[in-house]
Amino acid sequence: MTTRIDRRMAKLKAEGRPALVTYFMSGDPDYDTALSIMKALPKAGADIIEMGMPFSDPMADGPAIQAAGLRALKGGQTLVKTLKMASEFRTTDNETPIVLMGYYNPIYIHGVDRFLRDALASGIDGLIVVDLPPEMDEELCIPALKAGINFIRLATPTTDDKRLPKVLQNTSGFVYYVSMTGITGSALADTGKVAAAVGRIKGHTDLPVCVGFGVKTAEQARIIGASADGVVVGTAIVNAVANVLGPKGEKTADPAEAVATLVSGLSQGVRAARLAAAE
Amino acid sequence: MNKPATPNSFRTGPDEQGMFGIFGGRFVAETLMPLILDLERHWNEVKDDPDFKAELTDLSTHYAGRPSKLYFAEGLTRHLREVSSAKGLGGGAKVYFKREDLNHTGSHKINNCLGQILLAKRMGKKRIIAETGAGQHGVASATVAARFGFPCVVYMGATDVARQSPNVFRMKLLGAEVRPVTAGHGTLKDAMNEALRDWVTNVEDTYYLIGTAAGPHPYPELVRDFQSVIGTEARAQILEQEGRLPDTIIACVGGGSNAIGLFHPFLDDKEVRIIGIEAGGRGLDGIEHCASMNAGAPGVLHGNRTYLLQNADGQIIDGHSISAGLDYPGVGPEHSWLRDSGRVDYVPVLDDEALEAFQLTTRVEGIIPALESAHAIAHAVKIVPAMDKDQIVIVNLSGRGDKDVHTVANMLGMEI
To answer: Matching Gene3D superfamilies, A to Z (chain B) (predicted)?
Structure first.
């Protein structure tokens, strides 16, 4: 069966340009603001939305996303509210793919079967669960695939050719290549190495390969987008929100507008990537 | 929760996937997965290698001071017999202390650190990272890093840095860099998150020296095996000193490495009652405790599934304990399995009870126990008077309490 992710990726491939995949933290700094950010993303040129599910102990995330998750939790965000936010988004946008990204425990506590039912009903298309490697596929990956939800796996520089087939085995939607070892929000990796790694992964799969970790500017998006099928931007968006919050969390400007400005720029970067690649 | 069927042996876990029943596993980011598999490969190579064992035994003997003594705590036994008589019971079991406090660095932590530093050396790693709560594991890590010439970074919650300053200074003297972690409540959980972030970033050359029998497979197994020297010795010593096995063994459980080390060699001795003591803090009614197995639920954190303190949304709750070493919202996965299988009883002891046992032991034995170990002693104080005089209890005295004198002085309203 095809999902919104498959359809969107096929469409962009036909257009000959990479996808702009944007991550935001659901519930940061509060439910209503986060929903307005979510709605602003596609309008500003985002092709796929990654919705961060806040977790108290985000072990693979850097300070920016840690802080965003804590702001969201402090604002009362829960897994149930994140799914509700997706449902509300779907009332005005039934095309843009939504991928939930986070850690396993809130899903496990919600109950895997119940979570998959609720996620489908909320219009969720894919999952990225950081702490579920292929060794733990029985937990959520296989049930998700059966339910018709893409399970998107991270591949990293430590995923060598021997391991890659295992990582790709039950992956669907796209492959998320983390361009460096380290936590989210670290410096951008060597772009030449990234292109080589994307080529290496493409030798093992027909799935689109999106690249993340470290992309902050339109120029970086353009360069990464020349070799990858998608460019993931996360920390820069979360920072755009943080930058318009005062010391007590009060809004000094409209976070949705700040995010839209950033994403518009990035969107020009990925759209220029097609021209760059064609040269 | 349904009880799993009673297995023929309680000592065969984990399975090949690193599971103890539903507990354990490898819930880590893909970046770490190849490292964990590499660690497992090396661990499987060395665990039955006579050369590795010989090197570890030699260090344990001449550097750490093993075997640790099994000491008949005559003063405490006499005191508890008086309590028993006063209650008209006329009983009071014999209490023995397994003296891990006499090890080099002052706790059981050195057992695990020596084993893992030899493993790190074999794997060709260049840098050691560790997390610490009370600072005992940080000190033990810094010690073995100094001994073997590794640079060492220790992550420690900022709250713990403040309440365990003597250990912070010790680590610095030993050449380690102590990085305070301000996230969360600034305790062990947050230190572990930060250590994992370091590891995810420095995958090439770094060895993560986990201090407790928790984390992704194979850590719970290898830490248990390095700590099992405690129970193996205690079992042989009590057979030699008393000619029979003990009736009850007791140890405190934070992550649970000293406890699993004592318990594991006794698990198939059905006549031995095994009790793990959780930090009851200020009571189990609220959230000011760390009794994950008495008041928590199974969940996934720090690479394994185990009992955790968490809310209905699966967010981890920061607990509380007077003792920094027990201040952790989870527990090693093998304990969770032993709890559900019914082989081990886990009961809480409150801050105040531990503090009383700390003072009592100091007064009647001339031994200052770690506040962690004082939790185990406190439970012995509760149950021993009702036991018979010919019964035997072994309490794991997992560490010495010199590090805790500031905390205790504070609690008692004294100035040092």
So the answer is: 3.40.50.1100
